[in-house]
Write a structure and sequence with these properties.
The complex is a heterodimer.
Chain A (H helix, E strand, L loop, with lengths): L7 H19 L5 H25 L2 E4 L10 E4 L1 H27 L8 H17 L3 H20 L4 H32 L7 H5 L5 H17 L9 H7 L2 H27 L4 H24 L3 H18 L9 H31 L15 H15 L5 H16 L2 H26 L13 H19 L1 H8 L5
Antiparallel strand pairs in A: 1-2
Helix pairs in contact in A: 1-2, 1-4, 2-3, 3-4, 3-10, 3-13, 3-17, 3-18, 4-5, 4-10, 5-6, 5-10, 6-8, 6-9, 8-10, 9-10, 9-12, 10-12, 10-13, 11-12, 11-16, 12-13, 12-16, 13-14, 13-15, 13-17, 14-16, 14-17, 15-16, 15-17
Chain B lengths: L2 H22 L3 H23 E2 L2 E2 L1 H32 L3
Classes of the chains: A mainly alpha, B mainly alpha.
Chain lengths: 481, 92
């Protein structure tokens, strides 16, 4: 174990807090260089940590040397490491994009983007490393507050209204989660994750069932699971492009990660009813979200509704979770692939909207000949969402179908395939419009090449995860200490 | 029935009432107040159930303090947003 003062576990939280605070002191719109520098260091730390735990297994860091009952412990294992890597990679790419985006777009000066995104990343990393239910609540709340600030930043009445709605849903959801935590503490006298499974045993009391149900409902609302999805399209569709990408790709995944993390110990005692309930709602989300995406007029709303649909897949895995871990792999793979693809899609759409000056699907007529790289990025991300090989989305759906076949649930297979077809409909709606030939080509605003390349890089990464999945799976198998 | 349990039950009733308020009310300030009430309900549960065998348990009290800090920050943000909404829309 490295010296406690240089432990990447602590620095992954301290670094973003530092650059966020410095960016705040520097003033509105400043601090992009610091952020990119900090995020590069975080990426290096995350990679080093991944190499270390692959070799020696998961481990604990006692913050300040205090240790669990009195202090706060940070724990890393395979699942949290995969999510940490995804978070650092995505935020670095989006920071490079956002730097160019905010330098370009004078109308859209999200003046407080840099400090807020720093706090968001810090909260996210802390959430992924937290080892007890109450710290999870605090980090969840911090993340929610930073995300709401990002949605509201620099925008008019519609954006503020969406942010307020998002905030109230988020607060109600975490209130339910906190009440669950209070009941767990009342029953067992601890909120640390490690001792809970043995305490809960096989026959938990009724109060525990109520607590688990409250926590699950709160987290599902935060993940925008149908029918709690109503806050997501206006918030994600209304924010500026880098913010939408950050929220859709990462923030909703954090609460999903929590459900996945707490599932075996806390939620599984709720029984198969809860698992099938989540699965059913996920199925409804796929169909309803895709339907809305197909009928959306505004580009960003289309992508936001597609997020609602893609989040549905994440919940299909719960009835299939088995000791062989195939369903878990499917869920994590979908989270990673969708994270990269959705960030690519929102960044590409940001380029298109900036270039054409309007944000409707109809306004795209003929842009393919002038912005081929961006269109290619959008199409590649679309391929992942549809689940065509060799993308990460394909692998996720393949694993999901594999797990469903093992359990004999044919309905799931039909659902996964028809979900892919529905995704194809909304992706091709955009592509078709962009490839239409017009007699009078529209005049586009110039877009920095860097923005286009980030979108392309993210899309390519979402394809590559399908090819480099072995490493992700190996990392996922690393157990907690 | 111990006093602790009474506090906890009152807390749950408060929480349910306030959650209904957040969902059903339309005026932003009323919803923010309802959210605060919801938080108070949870804190009552935590503090009420913290008195085990007549002795106070410090851990839930620390949690309540942290929770209060979080809820003050959240309320401030919500009020700031509500103010901007009212300034922009006039009647929101």
């Amino acid at each position: 174990m490295p010296d406690a003062a240089y432990d990447p576990l602590a620095w992954l939280i301290v670094l973003p807090l530092t650059w966020a605070a410095l960016a705040f002191v520097l003033g509105p719109g400043k601090g992009s260089g610091l952020a990119i520098l900090g995020l590069t260091a975080q990426n290096a730390l995350a990679l080093a940590l991944a190499a270390e735990i692959l070799e020696r297994g998961g481990r604990v860091h006692a913050v300040g040397g205090w240790g669990a009952p009195l202090g706060i412990d940070l724990v890393v294992d395979g699942l949290s490491m995969v999510m940490l890597l995804l978070t650092q990679t995505l935020t670095l790419a989006l920071a490079i994009y956002a730097r160019a985006y905010f330098a370009q777009d004078r109308r859209d000066q999200s003046t407080r983007f840099w400090p807020l995104s720093g706090f968001l990343v810090a909260a996210m990393n802390a959430l992924l490393l937290a080892a007890d239910l109450f710290n999870l609540y605090v980090t969840l709340e911090l993340m929610g507050l930073a995300a709401v600030g990002l949605v509201a930043a620099g925008g008019g009445a519609a954006r503020v209204a969406a942010a307020l709605r998002y905030l109230l849903v988020s607060l109600t959801a975490s209130g339910a989660y906190l009440l669950g935590v209070a009941l767990v503490y009342a029953v067992y006298g601890t909120v640390a994750l490690a001792p809970l499974p043995t305490l809960i045993g096989t026959d938990p009391p009724l109060a525990f069932g109520l607590a688990a149900a409250l926590m699950l409902a709160g987290l599902a609302a935060k993940t925008a699971l149908f029918p709690f999805h109503f806050w997501l399209p206006p918030a994600h569709g209304g924010a500026s492009a880098p913010v939408s990408a950050l929220l859709s790709a990462l923030v909703v995944k954090a609460s999903f990660y929590l459900i996945l993390r707490l599932w075996p110990d806390i939620f599984a005692p709720l029984g198969q009813t809860a698992a099938w309930g989540l699965g059913g709602l996920g199925a409804a989300a796929i169909l309803w979200g895709s339907w809305q995406a197909i009928h959306a007029n505004r580009l960003k709303m289309l992508v936001a509704w597609s997020t609602v649909a893609q989040l549905g897949y994440l919940f299909l895995i719960f009835p299939l979770l088995a000791p062989d871990g195939v369903a878990l792999q499917a869920g994590v793979m979908q989270a990673v692939a969708h994270g990269l693809a959705k960030a690519a899609m929102f960044t590409a759409v940001g380029v298109l909207i900036h270039a054409t000056g309007c944000d409707t699907v109809d306004g795209l007529t003929g842009v393919a000949s002038q912005l081929p790289l961006t269109l290619f990025a959008f199409a590649l991300a679309g391929v992942t969402l549809m689940g065509l090989p060799p993308s990460g989305g394909f692998l996720a759906k393949w694993l999901l179908i594999d797990a469903a076949l093992k359990n004999g649930h044919w309905g799931w297979i039909v659902l996964v395939i028809s979900g892919g077809l529905l995704a194809a409909v909304y992706v091709f709606r955009v592509l078709r419009q962009a490839f239409l030939v017009t007699s009078e080509p529209c005049r586009l605003h110039p877009v920095p090449r860097r923005m286009e390349w980030v979108a392309f890089g993210l899309a390519a990464a979402s394809m590559m995860t399908g090819l480099r999945a072995v490493e992700i799976m190996a990392l996922l198998r690393v157990a907690a200490p | 029935m111990t006093p602790g349990l009474i506090y906890a039950l009152v807390g749950i009733v408060l929480f349910v009432l306030a959650a209904g308020g957040v969902i059903l009310l339309t005026h932003p300030v009323r919803r923010i107040l309802a959210f605060n009430l919801m938080g108070s309900g949870v804190f009552l549960v935590l503090v009420g159930l913290a008195q085990r065998d007549g002795q106070a348990d410090p851990v839930p009290q620390a949690m309540v303090l942290t929770g209060i800090v979080v809820s003050v920050a959240a309320t401030a943000l919500a009020l700031a947003l509500a103010r901007r909404l009212a300034a922009g829309d006039g009647d929101a």
